[in-house]
Amino acid sequence: MGGTGKGPAEHGTGPGAGAPVHSQGEAGRARTRDGRELYYQGLAGPAGAAGRPTVVFEGGLAAGRSYWAGVQAALADVAPTVVYDRSGLGRSPAAPPGASRRLAALADDLGDLLGHLDHLGRVGYGGLFLLVGHSWGGPLVRLAAAAQPARVAGLVLVDPTDESCDLLFQPAMRRAERIGQVVTVALARLGLLGRAYRSLTATLPPDAAADMRAEGYTVAMPRTRGRELEDAAGDLRALVENPPGLAGLPVTVVSAGRVSPGMPKSVRERATASQAYRARQSPHGRHVVLPEADHMVLTTSAAELAGEIRRLPI
User: Fold this and answer.
1) What pLDDT, on a 0 to 100 scale, did the predictor assign at position 247?
2) pLDDT of amino acid 19
3) Within a domain: residue 282?
4) What DSSP string runs through the chain?
């Protein structure tokens, strides 16, 4: 689980050093248990942040590190932060053909990243981690936390996919996934995918937006999306049958208050209800609705989301 990536002090971004070249911090690569490499970027946080939990961000379905740039910047004064690309996204090479990209495998990769960062604890990362997961990243961080709860300070689930929502098991959801995949592939091949997300990209710092335009809308993204969707219903059923135990960890669940494309009012209400249910399953659970956010909470309400993350032990 070791890797060749460097931590913040090794790149001159530790306490007392100059500002990093990139708004999302210095780069590193973490090696997974099967030899793949995951690209990440990290900010060391303010002077005196050593010993505080490192905030690690997990994206939604086929979403890379750049989406988190606004939230990451809003937390730079309180704690170390790390963003990364899952295999096949951004600057992380794709997993070999036949390698699982289902939810449990993605959670294993996140665990390997945490192990790598823990190894770098002497230069600013490591120790405890606060895991923040958006959408499909919500159940992913729950699985990773359940695997090693002693390593985790808390969870923030951002408009998460939740297995308690019965809509997720209906045939209409599978049809919507297939249609979405066909449309995404077509737009990527035509070079039009970035245009569909112009308003989202416009909210990011210029360097993160440039990364998103260069890396986030290529044909590789829908290819990875298809692999991550291989059996979404099966992954969710596995959570129902074997709920991840979070050992009483603090859990904040953040819901969007506005509808989104593909999420009309009726769907929004049921999704929010499932998210409120998830918060109630934790003895230290908290549910909050951000009224101005749509499903892309991390870009439509970055400052407000950062405020909710600050409420946890960092």
Assistant:
1) 86
2) 56
3) yes
4) --BS---TGGGT-STTSPPPSSTT-EEEEEE-TTS-EEEEEEE--STT-TTSPEEEEE-STT--GGGGHHHHHHTTTTS-EEEE--TTSTTSPPPPTT---SHHHHHHHHHHHHHHHHHTGGGT--SSEEEEEETTHHHHHHHHHHH-GGGEEEEEEES---TT-GGGGSHHHHHHHHHHHHHHHHHHHTT-HHHHTHHHHTTS-HHHHHHHHHHTTSTHHHHHHHHHTTTHHHHHHHHHHSPPP-TT--EEEEEESS-BTTB-HHHHHHHHHHHHHHHHTSTTEEEEEETT--S-HHHHSHHHHHHHHHTS--
